[in-house]
Amino acid sequence: QVQLVESGGGLVQAGGSLRLSCAASGVTFSNYAMGWFRQAPGKEREFVARINWSGGNNYYSDSVKGRFTISRNNAKNTVYLQMNSLKPEDTAVYYCAADLSGHILKPAGFKFWGQGTQVSVSS
User: Fold this and answer.
1) I want to staple 97 with a disulfide (CB 3.0 to 4.6 A). Which of 22, 86, 110, 118 is the partner?
2) What integer pLDDT is reported at residue 44 of this predicted model?
3) DSSP code per residue over 7-62
4) What's the pLDDT score for residue 118?
5) Cα–Cα distance between 74 and 62 in angstroms, integer?
6) What pLDDT shows up at residue 4?
7) What is the mean pLDDT of each run of 10 residues along the chain (123 residues)?
């Protein structure tokens, strides 16, 4: 059974940083592309970042490019999202997702999902 568990969310002031983690089990982690998505209240879930199985070919949404960094540690079955220079508009529930392909940078392009972790940025 595939399980993705996010952690590291919380409340931070604008300009601050957070590091999200997502621990995977029940899959051969190194075979999967991993993604981070987010969903703010009243909005659709949107793509944030994606990393391929080897840690390369990283993609970012324009809204987070230059501020967020996705990385992974295949020995620990964990993917990370380092978030710097946070803005109030980054407030959302953040989800990690896994897919053998991960080429489609939309929620429909990822098969497995975590339960989400809340990130709140105060102004």
Assistant:
1) 110
2) 97
3) E--EEEETT--EEEEEEEESS-GGG-EEEEEEE-TTS--EEEEEE-TTS-S-EE-T
4) 98
5) 26
6) 97
7) 95 98 94 96 96 90 98 97 98 96 89 97 96
Inter-residue contact 89 to 41 (CB < 8 Å):
no
Beta strands in 52-116 (DSSP E): 59-60, 68-73, 78-83, 92-99, 112-113
53 is written with which tokens? 């199985």
Q: In degrees rounded to 5, what are phi and psi of residue 94?
A: -105, 130
Tokens representing 46 are: 């949107």
pLDDT at 47: 97
Paired tokens of 7: 């952690």
Quick one: tokens of 42?
A: 């009243």
- Using CA of residue 31, residue 105, residue 81, residue 98, what is the dihedral sign? negative
pLDDT at 104: 87
Residues 39 and 21: beta-carbon distance below 8 Å: no
Q: What is the pLDDT of residue 1?
A: 86
